[in-house]
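Practice problem: PhoH family protein
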Amino acid sequence: MPLPPAPTKRAAMLPPEALDAPARSSHKAARKTEAPAAETLLERPQAQDDFDPRAGGGDVPAGSYDAEVETYLDEPQPARRMRKDVTVPAAQPKKKKSSGTAKMFVLDTNVLMHDPMSLFRFDEHDIFLPMVVLEELDGHKKGTTEVARNARQASRSLDAMASPPTADIASGLKLDSTGHKEAGGCLFFQTMPLSPSGLPMGLPPGKADNQILSVVQALQEKHAPRQVVLVSKDINMRVKARALGLNTEDYRNDKTLDDLDLMYSGSLALPHDFWSTHGNVESWQSGSHTFYRVSGPVVPGLFINQFVYFEAPGEPSLYARVTEIRGKTAVLKTLKDFGHLKNAVWGVTTRNREQNFAMNLLMDPEVDFVTLSGTAGTGKTLMALAAGLTQVLDERRYTEIIMTRATVSVGEDIGFLPGTEEEKMGPWMGALDDNLEVLGKTDNGAGEWGRAATNELIRSRIKIKSMNFMRGRTFLNKYVIIDEAQNLTPKQMKTLITRAGPGTKIICMGNLAQIDTPYLTEGSSGLTFAVDKFKGWPHSGHITLARGERSRLADFASDVL
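Answer key — C-alpha cells:
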C-alpha cells in the first residue's frame, strides 16, 4: 500500500473532530483496517512519521503530556508508557534502602575496638551501648597499639555526639549529627539498670560478657516485637547468645568480600568463540607489540591492566593486556615473553602463564602499584626481587629497594631482638636471604670473587625497614616490597601505600591462606582490600599466581594439607 502524502496542516489547524481521534496508532493497526480516503488522511494525524510535535508550532508543545495514551510525546517509544505525571519531578537524592522495621543493634566492645567507625555502618537501624561496654572501652584506651587507637577514636566519636547542649541522651542521639549522613538511626546508652527475667543461673553475673547478654535479653523483652540483635566478633559470645535464644551476628561490614572466590584474579580466559563473536577486530603494530581493538560481549567485563589469554588447539594463542577501554571498545596489547632466555630478568625466566603476567607488571614503569597473591612457592618474592634488582642496578630507574613485612609470629614469640632496626628485622627476612642466594648464583661467569662483590653491591642497595616507623615517611624513587601483606589490616595497608612519593613503585605480596593476625580473615585482609580498591586503575595491576614452582613436595603439601 503506498504511503499517504505529507500533511499540509499544522495541529492547531485541524478540525475539532480530528482532535477527538486517538493521538497515535501503529502502522500495523493501520494496515489491518481499510485504506481511508486521501482527504481523510490529510485531516487526521496518523503516526510519528506524519506529525512531529518537536518540529514546533501548533498547540502541542514539546514535552507535553498525551492523556489518551499516557505518554510524553518527546520520548522514545519504550519510555513513553512509563510516565503518569503531567509535570516532571526534580531529581531527588537517593534514599537509603529500608529493610522494614528498624532493628536495634547492641554492639560488643570488640566491635568498636576492631572498627571505630562501626557506629555509622548500620544504615537506618538504632544502636544501643551497655554501660559495661563503655567501661571496657575506657580500660583499653591506653597504649600505642592499634586496639588502643581504635578505642580512643570510638570514644571521641561518642563524645562528639553527646557533647552538644541540645543532645537528649534519654531519647537517643542522632547518629548523623556529626556529619555521617549514611547513618539514619539513633544511639542509645544504658541509663538505668536492665535485668531480664530468664537469664540462666549458671552465668556469673560479674563477668562483662554475661552483663552484655543480660542487657540484650532485657531489651528484647522490653521492646518486643522489635528485633534486638547482638553484634560481636567473639565466637564464644555469639554461641552463648544463641544458646539463650538471642539474635546475634558477626560484624561483617569490614569484609571487602564475603567469598574469596569472588576476588579479582587479574586475568581472564577468553571464550573459545572469541574470534567469531568479535570478528570486527582492528590490529596494528607498534615496536615489538601488536595492538588489537575489539568490541563485543566480553568488553563490559574487562578492567584496565587486566590480562586476557586465548588458548585453543589448532589456533594461534593470544596473551595480551587491556590498555584502554572506551565505551564498548577495548584495546589489547600483546605481552613481552619473559619465559624466553633472551628476556631473562636478573637471570630469572618465568615458568608459567601467570608468572609472565606478573613480570610484565613488575617491569612496566607506568605501573606504580602491583599486588601479587598466591600459595607458597609460586615465585612472588623471587620475581619481585629480580625485577627490583634489574631496575635499580641495571636500568637505574629506582635508587634502592626497600623491603618490609608484617611482623606477626606463627608460634610463640622468641622475645626481644638485639641490635639496630635492620638487625631486629633480620630474623623476619629469611625469605629475602633465601631468594638473594638464588639470584646470586645466576651469574655463573663472574667467578667466586665476582659473585662476592655482586652480593655486597646488592646488599648495599637493599634496605630492610620496620613497619612500626613508617608513619610520616615519604619514599622518593624507591622500589618498595611489602611481603606477607595478608597479615595487614586495611588501615595499615593505607598507611604503607600513602608513603609513596614521586617515582616510587610498591609491590604487595601475600598468601591469603596463611593469615596469622587475630580477627583478620581472607575477606577483611588489607591485601584483599587493596586488590579490590585498585582494580581498574590505569597505574596498578594484580595477578593471582596459580601454580607453585618451588618443588614437587611444596606443591603437593599446598594441595593436600
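Discussion: Residues 346 and 386 are 5 Å apart (CA to CA). Students who identified this feature from the C-alpha cells alone can consider the problem solved.
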